[in-house]
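Training component of the fellowship. As part of building independent skills, the fellow (R.M.) carried out the full modelling exercise for a liganded target. The chosen ligand was adenosine-5'-triphosphate. The inputs are recorded below so that the supervisory panel can assess the work.
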Amino acid sequence: MDAVVATETIVEAKGVTRDYPSGGGVVHALRGIDLKIKPGEFVALRGRSGSGKTTLLNILIGLDSPTSGSVLILGKNLLKMSETERARLRRESIGMMFQNAHLFPSLTALENVEIPLRLSRMPSAQRNRQAIEALEQVGLGKRAKHRGMELSGGEQQRVALARALVHKPRFIIADEPTGNLDSLTGRDITFLLRDISHQGNIGLLIATHDPLVFNTADRLVRIQDGLLTEGPLEEDHA
Ligand SMILES: Nc1ncnc2c1ncn2[C@@H]1O[C@H](COP(=O)(O)OP(=O)(O)OP(=O)(O)O)[C@@H](O)[C@H]1O
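Fellow's submitted model of the complex:
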């Protein structure tokens, strides 16, 4: 059994706080977050604008550090790693998606998906094989040679998902991945993310305002005033 499965937890945040200095005072953006995500678990994160979602996502992937508390990814404490080690962990074990696909419009779908593998200097034959496999996983095998600018918004988001998957990550983090899509296309992407997470045993955390995403997720966590609560609230205006 590999070390990843043995940990049984993809992400574990304990007592995470994050303070920002602001105008001579302090903003307590996160006030003690505890969160665990298991392999194959799809968790939706919901919260009003300014509630701390982006701050939390950045801390969970080691792009920002908590003021106090700890974050373990695949059993490794992010705070005890060097910046180089954190960058390597992100490159090898974490896939990221955003509201915009951020493709290079003049590169083909395949070339866009290959970018992370180029950065890790993978030999071209293997790179090509893995990128095609990732495009097939998102149903875009036949669009591999199309340029980014020739693809629809939904197809571009699928390419972004293929790019997030191409390294075979254990954890995918997505910030409003359906935010720019019409509802039908958003549904396709949501179901695809869910199936990929469940079938590939990948931990998935999506920050979202999209009701379909939080109704599809295995678990809904809600961030309010820098604290997490689990499940839907009676009165929910987020
Ligand atoms: N670099 C910073 N310096 C000072 N305050 C910050 C900084 N980044 C975030 N904040 C504050 O921390 C709080 C949480 O911000 P954050 O961006 O995490 O919220 P969010 O839930 O992602 O919002 P949105 O949905 O609008 O993206 C807000 O009050 C914000 O103003």
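The panel noted the following from the submitted structure. The first helix runs from residue 3 to 7. The two ends are 41 Å apart (CA to CA).
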